[in-house]
Amino acid sequence: MLLPLLLACSGTTDTVTTVDGPSACDGLYQLDDGDSVDAIYDRDGDGYLDQYNAECAATYGLNRLDCDDDDPGIHPDAVEITCNDIDDDCNEDTPDLLDNDLDGTPGCYDCDDDDPAQSPIAEEKCWDEIDNNCDGHIDEDCGLNYSGRFDLSQRIRYNCLLGLVIIDFDQVGIIYDPPAASLYSVNGGQPGTMSGTIEDDGSFSFTRVIDIKTAASCAEHYEISGTFSDEDNFVMDFTARFVPTSAGACLSCTNQQWTGVIGSRAEGAR
Question: What are the boundaries of each domain within the chain?
């Protein structure tokens, strides 16, 4: 039997249909519902109904369904609070964990969420003066920093093969990313950029091969080896070899070697 029920609400009078029988989450008022329609399906009293009840889910829209009916602070009209690991507004598309720099770590756990080079899952990169792994330390366990430009104690100069080979430099630059490194002759010319390694004890070795393609062919083999005494000073040997791949290809080029060349860090170059 259906009975009309008058409910006073904020100065107005609404007519709600009352239904005999056991309570159901159906938008109708049963006597077991309590103070209002389907009130027993709103356990936390926040005005939103249990979305995990099949009857409520079938009767009400998402804007009336509560994803946690035991917490009055969680419902569709709640403000999403970031970094609390809770879906406050019952909307999985609203991000709880923001990652502004898209480095894979939410800002709650990132020491700098505007810099993708910094996060707890990053590896510490040596000598960039940044706490890459967010452990509170900068450039830890990096050892000596050999990167920079170094003045040489003598100018290394040689040319041959009608100007195709021009060696002329008195400064080198080093880029060190342990243990790999590269060394280049400043101001261009041969040997250019050479690849190699610098070991933990400061010893280093760099090589480069350049093929000159003319009517014949000549290969330039460059080798630099030596040892750092500290991060600002080293002693090196430089060898230039010219290997013809056909008769007379290297013309008048002869092998050259410079030994005991001292390198000192250029002022302000690090």
Answer: 2-66, 97-141, 148-265
